[in-house]
Amino acid sequence: MDEPSHFITICSDSLGDTAEAVVQAVLHQFENQRVTIKRYGNVRHEDELRKLLEEAARHNGFVAYTLVQPELRETIREEAVRLDLRIVDIMGPMMQAFIDTFNDAPRERPGLLHQLDENYFRRIEAIEFTVASDDGRDLGAMLKADIVLLGMSRTSKTPLSIFLAHRGKKVVNYPIVPEISPPGQLFKLPSQRMIGLTMEPEHMLKIRSERLKVLGLPVDSQYASLGRIKEEIKYAEALFQRIGCPVIDITDKAIEETAGLIMGYI
Hints:
Elements: E1 6-12, H1 17-27, E2 35-40, H2 46-58, E3 62-66, H3 70-83, E4 86-89, H4 92-102, H5 118-132, E5 147-151, H6 157-165, E6 171-175, E7 194-198, H7 201-215, H8 226-243, E8 247-249, H9 255-265
Parallel strand pairs: 1-2, 1-3, 3-4, 5-6, 5-7, 7-8
């Protein structure tokens, strides 16, 4: 098997979620790049840090890090010079801006973001709720949801739902199909709690065709025909208008961008 063309190491004295989220957001801006991401969390000792940096240097990649302990921050800077390794400080510039602007000092304790506080448990509850309600499996959950996502097949309903759940929102997503009458719950909800998702027909055609290829199914099925897709979009948009909910065209939008728009509406 060919070696990946790019290697990125994520290093953190906590979980590394923050650094990986930034790396993933950047990767969305680059097409056709084969990238291996290796994440090291809970790095608390200088020897451990030196070892992972040496591995990163062997792969000719770079390191994205979130380290708050001063000794580890100093070590990674020294080792980067020694190994001729590029490092990216995810949190440092923001912390320095906070210090300079507000004349305050950081607590320098790793893992504060992930303490088991009320927000943490709210996120866990939202994720469990959202997973259990995926793809319209629990219609009754619509009345308890913070957000209800509506859209035809392949409009990123599930990944969007999970992304929003990680931000503490209970989400139900429901697939819109012309042959199935919409559930009565949709007409009992405030329209501002519902979001319609749509996409340009040609873009949808490409996505569905690729999906059928991955599944080993014929690409000339009705599911991936332009006529069928236009019919579904027309039906969905008529339903969105009837409900009176906001509609987002997700064509060429990253999950993070669409989620930001949804949070703005909600």
